[in-house]
Specification:
By secondary structure, the chain is of the alpha/beta class. Helices cover 23% and strands 17% of the residues. InterPro entries: Deacetylase_Atu3266-like, Metal-dep_hydrolase_composite, Metal_Hydrolase. This is Amidohydrolase-related domain-containing protein.
Length: 240
């Protein structure tokens, strides 16, 4: 392979006239759900997921990261069923819940949030499992976040947090300014219920403080989890 201003066509197996187009390396989508084919209804470890090859290449995406569809109990099945059979390069954030993102109330089961088992699975598949995920937790305790960070710390990988139901007992501000570590990811950053803007429409200072701490904010939206009333003023004020 070569990247040069001019490459003789005789040296190429195939020549494509790309004048007027942008030429870029394959894009990476870090938030997808592709654990398809299990037949489980109303679940991201089932029918809510789609196979990656059906949407990636047509969008110039060559690598995706599944955002917590599988947990330590069913990751081997996900790997065999999807990762190993896809032309797309598929990485994974492992759900802190052992059975992954199953039908409600699967992700509320704190008894299945095993940090030790999750970390062990990450270590078993280095370079394929690239982090830990917690999502959709409703209770007022910090259990899901704490277990995910415990697993991420033990396996030396980042944690993705989809904060779930926002509760006053566990404020979002505390999550991003105290709980999360450098390199951890808060996803769905422009969703409507994040306390992002003050009464004057200004981005709250704690969010810029969190970015300075090294917390990464991920847009993470497909058909939802996005509100222009949040995104437009935030982008124009530099919170991107």
């Amino acid at each position: 392979a070569a990247v040069e201003k001019n490459i003789p066509s005789k040296d190429a197996a195939k020549t494509i006239i790309a004048e007027g187009f942008y030429v870029t390396p394959g894009l990476v989508d870090i938030h997808v759900h592709v654990y398809a084919g299990t037949g489980i209804r109303d679940a991201y470890n089932g029918d809510n997921s789609v196979y990656p090859d059906g949407f990636t290449f047509r969008s110039c995406v060559t690598t995706v990261a599944d955002a917590g569809s599988s947990g330590w109990r069913n990751f081997p099945d996900f790997k065999d069923r999807v990762i190993d059979r896809s032309k797309t390069r598929v990485l994974a954030f492992l759900n802190i819940v052992g059975s992954g993102m199953g039908p409600y109330p699967t992700e509320q089961n704190t008894k299945d949030m095993n940090a030790t088992a999750a970390a062990a699975m990450v270590k078993k598949f280095p370079g394929v499992i690239v982090g830990i995920k917690t999502a959709h937790f409703e209770d007022p305790e910090w259990t899901a976040v704490d277990r995910a960070i415990e697993a991420g710390t033990a396996a030396n990988v980042p944690v993705v947090v989809d904060f779930g139901v926002f509760r006053p007992e566990r404020p979002y501000q505390e999550l991003v300014t105290k709980k999360m570590r450098r390199g951890d990811i808060s996803t769905h950053m422009y969703i409507d219920y994040i306390p992002m803007l003050d009464a004057d429409g200004k981005v709250r200072p704690y969010l810029f403080e969190a970015k300075k701490r090294g917390v990464i904010f991920d847009v993470g939206h497909g058909g939802g989890s996005f509100d222009f009333r949040q995104a437009y003023p935030a982008v124009h004020q530099g919170f991107v």
